[in-house]
Amino acid sequence: NYLSGIKFTWETDHKALTQLNQKAQINKRCERWRLKILEYDFKVKYIPGLTNSMPDYLSRSPVDDAEEDPDEISILISKATQTDFDNIPNHLHVVTAVETRAMKLRNAKLPNTNNTEQLKSDSLNTSLKENRIIPFTNEQLKEAQQQDNYANKILNDIKKRKNYLIKNDLLMHNPKHPVPYVPQGDLRRTILHIYHDTAANGAHFGRNKTIHKIQQRYFWPSMCKDITNHIKSCIPCAQFNPRRQKTPGILKPIKPPEGVWQLVSMDFHGPITPTSQRGNKYIICLTDVLSKFVITKAVRDNTTHTAVRFLKEDVISKFGTPRCILTDNGTHFTSAMMDELCKQIGITHLYSTPYHPQTNGQVERYNSTMDAKIGALSNLRKTDWDDQLPFVTYNYNASIHSTTRQLPFEMMYGRLPILPFDHQDDNVTLSYDSTHINKLHQFLSKLNEQAKINIIRNQERYKQRYD
Fold this sequence. Notes:
- The chain is an alpha/beta fold.
- The chain has helices at residues 28-37, 53-60, 70-79, 82-85, 101-107, 116-132, 138-146, 149-155, 186-197, 207-215, 223-232, 235-240, 304-319, 331-334, 336-345, 361-377, 385-397, 408-413, 436-466, and strands spanning 7-12, 41-46, 164-167, 170-173, 179-180, 263-269, 282-288, 294-299, 324-327, 348-351.
- Pfam families: Integrase_H2C2, rve.
């Protein structure tokens, strides 16, 4: 596609098209076309019909039979009576194969819900097969660079290019943190698809998170603009991302804690419709207030027993005991069983203001993000949302947070996450560093301090805008 990645002018004698990108279209078909063309960088220019003779001729010129537009076929079917349908020309025989969503839902056979292990195995195999295939190798990238005019121009003058270097026969950008230059063409579109559309690597997160994720791995000059256009044209994102509106009142931010795992927020989310194939109806979520690290689990109910089990098996046994935990005043959190657990393990249990969910806004905000991403990744019937939950949670933790300007994964584990598509060295070096623990403590302390500074700075900005 020679229009991808370049700026061009679109001339048309249809003046209404000059306003196409100004707002969302009410007509669903027009809105799908609008989202599709947003991935390109163009300007619409109106010209009189007399000067637009060639496109006008081509639009009226008789052509051979071609593939039919499904939208046109659907309209034709809906408008035709049973008598008219018999007179449709033979070249529209594909009309009989058109199947509506309702027909698909009616004809589809549900898998055996009792065979939970088989469902889990099939789902995991599908996800792994989709997300483990490396789309291109370093050799293919090297060949593409050799055929790229921009890369050849830099290679011919590499000594004067301070921002470029050659490493392992690849043209790299940024000597401090070298990343390969990606030539124009299919490789760029593949990278955009991987780090935004796939469940394991992108999960349909927003512009800033996607830019940061790709910038850590690749470079090309129009990267930010291409990512922005790709996300603007993403139909699942447009369908499921919420449109936010400010609520009345003034904002009173919570002071950030001193360290990771000092204060965590927990809440149930649901009931979710429809119930998943495994019978799960709720998501229990726990968020660290400083690092923004999230732990989630799909569950069948929202009882105290489920909350206590989640804390013991999925939180404390894997990450240790948090100092304080903040919940709402639901009966599943105020019961005697929950109080007894907190006393036994030494957790200070804090409660949010009754009928004021903004007190526990950290976890409430993630619930909103989670809904949009799971909806974009799930199947048509939305019955596999619990299969997509681990991918959404992982990508949230592995993406830069807009408030802390840090990766929750890095603040929690002290290292950068490795995504399934990331290229790794074939050789592994084993060495012992006696000062590693001290270095790690210093590194994590620096991350925590910077995160607190960024949180306070953003809280002041949010409060100014909110009030």
